[in-house]
Amino acid sequence: MRPRLLYRDRDATVEYQPDELARDRFVDLELGALVRSMAHDDTTVETVATAMLHQPLNDPAAVAYRQAAVRDALANSETILELYQAPKRALDEVKKAYGWGLFTPAGVVHHSIEVLRIHVRHLQALRELARANAVKFQSQAFTDFFAALGQDVSDEWLGQVTVLLTELTFPHGVNAAATLGTANKATGITLTRPPLTRPPLLVRLGFRRPDHTFTLPDRDEAGYKALSELKDRALDPIADALGQAADHLTGFWNALRTEAAFFVGACNLHNALTSFQEPVALPTFHASPGFTCTGLYDAALVLLSGSPVVANTLDLNHTTVTVITGANRGGKSTLLRSLGQATVLAHCGLFVPAESFSTALRTTIHTHFTREEDADRTSGRLDEELARMSATVDAAQPGGLILLNESFASTNEREGSEIARNVIGALRDSGVSVAFVTHLYEYASRAHEEKRTDTVFLRAGREDDGHRDFRIQRGIPLPTSFGADLYERIFGTTLDPDELQPTLPSQGAR
After folding, report:
1. What pLDDT, on the 0 to 100 scale, is given for residue 253?
2. What is the pLDDT of residue 380?
3. Cα-based angle 341, 343, 346 (whole degrees, multiple of 5)
4. How far apart are CA 389 and CA 321, in angstroms?
5. 46 near 18, Cβ under 8 Å?
6. 10 Å Cβ neighbour count for 15?
7. d(CA 132, CA 120)
8. Does residue 337 contact residue 297 with C-beta atoms inside 8 Å?
């Protein structure tokens, strides 16, 4: 019996080791802030949430399976929390089970029986929890799990297991059959089922011995050792079987705790975002490239700032390349992060930070954000950028998405624009969608002149007085970089526009 709450046909893998590109995506999109909100200082939830956000799905059936389970979890958060806590109670009690003599088959049998009794008691409690709440769940993941639990942990099964575990304590001694081999040594020792009836009263009281008995003399240590060895040889197969059964149930509890942790994290994140009156929605998927959104916002920014943020509404369906330009600090990178967060969350079967969000199902999702200067770097910034871009392009697949933030800005305008034109053009021709935040006006203007129907241009808003509303709308690239804004940001004073005019030399000047 396996939970199968996250995947239809396999267990969740939290030992997943992300590659460098996946780690870059996690950092660039600030997914760590989302994980911390999901975890609420629970290391298990944090580990599972991190692993799952590193493993977005690209199969529509798998996404639908996960998404339906998340919808159930959000509607039944208290039951989900109980499903998460039940394995911990069982496993904590198992850890306290006294494990004497585990180096002998007899000791393994004794310990395994004690552990199995703990498992059975907690399985029965889990079944009762499922019976009381199964009607509230609609997803295939949870309905199948509850149905399997009711079938596998039936009253008949519980009765049989209880009787069997009682028999395996061997209250009337260990019964075994054997044959005599060479030199009258016992061979073919086989454990036999003990009698179901108790021995006669006189035998139990010691007034009469059973037929064909042999009693060891007092202080016969060699005889006792030989008899113990015969007993261990008889119990060895059953010790292995009981140990495997106990390990299997321990594995079940660990799997259930891992998979339930993901849904606990989803409920925690949902509560955190909605506590700021921010909307969340389960996304939809469409066949065409591009995306559409209503009220899309940066979830990490909300969680880090502790306040609502400006959202964006865009219709970029049938779009392969999205070029985002405009003034500094106008919300371009924030939009790019919000788009990346929503895409990753959607492909993990989770809700997204928006009133509505629809996207193409992506085969791969990658980011390429500009990096701060590293004093230890042995090569230049452009070399580092191109090396990362090469790895990103190699990993991209048709139907994938790459988010570029100020890429190729470490060189001059002309060279950076030419590199961007070639890289983005090749990606587009390969079926990879690109969203590009850039100040490379030469690239943006040339791309706009091509007037391709699959390319859309967005621009960060800026009023004449320099005010930003942080909303991104469709708009053609502008040649200005708003140098006065940069001057005020760096020097803290307002630049007089007249100072931008060139000073002509006097007639007497040479």
Report:
1. 95
2. 64
3. 105
4. 17
5. no
6. 6
7. 18
8. no
pLDDT, tens digit, for every residue of 379-415? 567 888 899 999 999 999 999 999 999 998 888 889 9
All residues at 6 or more sequence positions from 478 whose CB lies less than 8 Å from its CB, including other chains:
325, 326, 441, 459
What does the chain come to in residues? 510
> Which has the higher per-residue pLDDT, 209 or 259?
259
**Model pLDDT, residue 497:** 43
What does the block give as tokens for 371?
A: 């990096």
> Hey, is 290 helix, strand or coil?
strand
For residue 474, give every residue at least 6 positions away whose Cβ sits within 8 Å of its Cβ, in sequence order, or none. Answer: 456, 457, 458, 459
Residue listed under structure tokens 């261990």: 232
Which of 439, 433, 438, 361 has its CA nearest to residue 402? 433
Rounded CA-CA distance 209/231 in Å is 20
Distances (CA, A) of 238 to 189, 235, 312: 12, 5, 65
- Helix spans in 54-193 (H): 60-75, 77-96, 105-133, 140-152, 155-167
pLDDT digit string, tens, across residues 249-295: 999 999 999 999 999 999 999 999 999 999 999 999 998 889 999 99
359 within 8 A of 342, measured Cβ to Cβ: yes
Q: Look up residue 6 and give its DSSP letter.
A: S
Tell how far CA 394 is from the center of its chain: 24
The dihedrals phi and psi of 261, each to the nearest 5 degrees, come to -60, -35
Supply 162's token pair. Answer: 């209880």
CA distance 36 to 43: 10
What's CA 365's distance to the chain center, in Å?
Answer: 15
Output the pTM of the full model. Answer: 0.83
For residue 495 the two structure tokens come to 């630049």
